[in-house]
Amino acid sequence: MSNEQPAVKPNRWELRACGRRGHATYRPQEADLAGRLRTDTAVGQAWRCLRCGNFVPGPPAGGGPADTAPLVLRGKALRQATILRVLATERLIRAALLAFAVWAVLKFRNAHDSIQTAVDRDLPAFRAVGVHVDQLALVKDLQKALDQAPSRLTLIALLLAAYAAIELIESAGLWLAKRWGEYFAVVATSIFLPLEIRDLLGGVTFTRAGAFIVNLAAVIYLLLSKHLFGLRGGRAAYDRERHGEQLLEIEQAATTSTAAPSAR
């Protein structure tokens, strides 16, 4: 059986995805379309992978009507999904750091009295030998924290826990490439941008500047690449992009255009 299939050159994103997840082969019920996706080799039949376009020996992984075939990310959509997972990983790391901060605040609250006693006991000893430890920024921050009431520290811990939960939800939505996750990430990240700007006005540090740049870039990227809030054609344009690179649809279009002249 010899079929003429258009050359499909997979890019490294698609090859890497197939290397991690395995090939995505499918046998459509439509005979003409199935013929374009199948070929015979010396070792038996082989079916074209819907992601990378290579022929894979053996039976297909699934089958059925063409319009029920799985939506396989490839091309631009696959690259976007990879970027979203990088953002999701960054959000997960933030959530873990915030969870540690919650633990530290609660631990500090419970040990408040013992720390205060140690500070009151040891600082005068340093001053006696001419070492003004109390002038160090870290010690000043510690003394400010010691002045906080336990109830205020509990409130801080609750706010940090809520922030960690937001980051965790963002991470899950972006990792799963859910539409709601993209909206949630944009809204949640945008809410905190004014606070980050305020921190930058109070003093620019590498950490503050880096976090602000990452968050601002993430918001802009999600808005434009995912056509959120009606931008660049909205959901309709987003769906057209996702379906426009589907190999099964490309082959189906080729089948239709080939059959059209014989129908006249």
Provide a short characterization of the protein structure.
The chain has helices at 12-21, 31-37, 76-110, 112-128, 137-146, 150-175, 179-202, 206-225, 234-244, 247-263; strands at 26-28, 38-41, 44-48, 55-57, 62-64. The protein has 264 residues and is mostly helical. The chain has a three-stranded antiparallel beta sheet with strand order 2-3-4. Strands 1-5 form a two-stranded parallel ribbon.
Plain-language structure description:
- With 264 residues, the chain is mainly alpha-helical.
- It has two domains: 1-72, no CATH class; 76-109 and 151-240.
- The chain has ten helices and five strands, in the order αβαββββαααααααα.
- Strands 2-3-4 form a three-stranded antiparallel β-sheet. It has a two-stranded parallel ribbon with strand order 1-5.
- It is elongated and about 85 Å long.
- Mean pLDDT is 79; it is low at 1-7 and 131-136.
Q: Unreliable segments (pLDDT under 50, ≥5 consecutive)?
A: 1-7, 131-136
Summed up, the domain count is 2
* Mean model confidence by pLDDT: 79
Can you tell me the overall shape? elongated
**Rg:** 29 Å
Descriptive tags:
264 residues; mainly alpha; disordered N terminus; elongated
Give the SSE layout:
Elements: H1 12-21, E1 26-28, H2 31-37, E2 38-41, E3 44-48, E4 55-57, E5 62-64, H3 76-110, H4 112-128, H5 137-146, H6 150-175, H7 179-202, H8 206-225, H9 234-244, H10 247-263
Parallel strand pairs: 1-5
Antiparallel strand pairs: 2-3, 3-4
Helix pairs in contact: 2-10, 3-6, 6-7, 7-8
